[in-house]
Specification:
A hairpin with a 2-residue loop joins strand 9 and strand 10. The chain has 2 domains: 17-31 and 113-189, Probable tRNA modification gtpase trme, domain 1 (Gyrase A, domain 2, 2-Layer Sandwich), CATH 3.30.1360; 33-112, 2-Layer Sandwich (Alpha-Beta Plaits), CATH 3.30.70.1520. It is built from 5 helices and 11 strands, in the order E-E-E-H-E-E-E-H-E-E-H-E-E-E-H-H. The N and C termini lie far apart (45 Å). With 190 residues, the protein is of the alpha+beta class.
Length: 190
């Protein structure tokens, strides 16, 4: 079954620009696929084989992200990695993992429908993240890094590349967007 990418926050099914101010720009990233990769027991051998099967190196340490072609992987725990991919690749990825690990030492599950992806950029994107959570962002949160944290008391995955990306459970996305729109610096930046 191939899932149809739909927006969580926009009346348009294709997602959109949700907030556009000089201080903060928020976009919903509808075309982001994700597969949850799990290992029964964490081991470097299984991780290496799983990396080969999904054709993307999987990170070995907390906070690290790795990528190849159009796939990027995030370390979530010793047993779990999130593989971000094209949504049309999800079914194939789940099937190749199932075929490569019939003993279930590794498992893959489609995860796109569980998450809403937001991109934050603009002159105050960092300030928005600092106001929304206790996470210290700067030298301790370099580019191409990711972590689980909370933002306005909502569990999220936070990734940093050129911009910031936030993955939040679909059911909590609207609340998180409302909180971001209420940030005090937005009034003075207009």
């Amino acid at each position: 079954m191939i899932l149809q990418a739909t927006s969580v926050l926009s009346p348009s099914d294709k997602g959109s620009l949700l907030l556009n101010t000089p201080a903060l720009i928020i976009r919903e990233l509808v075309e982001q696929g994700a597969v949850m990769l799990s290992m029964a027991e964490p081991s470097s051998e299984v991780l290496q084989r799983l990396s080969e099967v999904v054709d993307c190196p999987l990170p070995e340490h907390a906070g690290k992200t790795t990528e190849r072609a159009m796939r990027r992987a995030l370390w979530l725990s010793p047993r779990h990695r999130l593989l971000m991919c094209d949504p049309t690749d999800e079914v194939e990825l789940v099937n190749v993992v199932k075929d490569a690990f019939p003993d279930a030492t590794a498992h893959a599950a489609m995860y796109s429908d569980a998450l809403c992806w937001l991109e934050l950029c603009g002159t105050h994107a960092l300030e928005a993240l600092q106001q929304g959570g206790f996470v210290r962002i700067g030298d301790e949160f370099p580019q191409y890094f990711g972590k689980r944290t909370t933002l306005f008391e909502v569990p999220v995955l936070l990734l940093r590349d050129e911009q910031y990306q936030i993955a939040v459970e679909r059911s909590r996305a609207d609340y998180l967007l409302q909180r971001l729109e209420q940030l005090t610096f937005l009034e003075t930046a207009l």
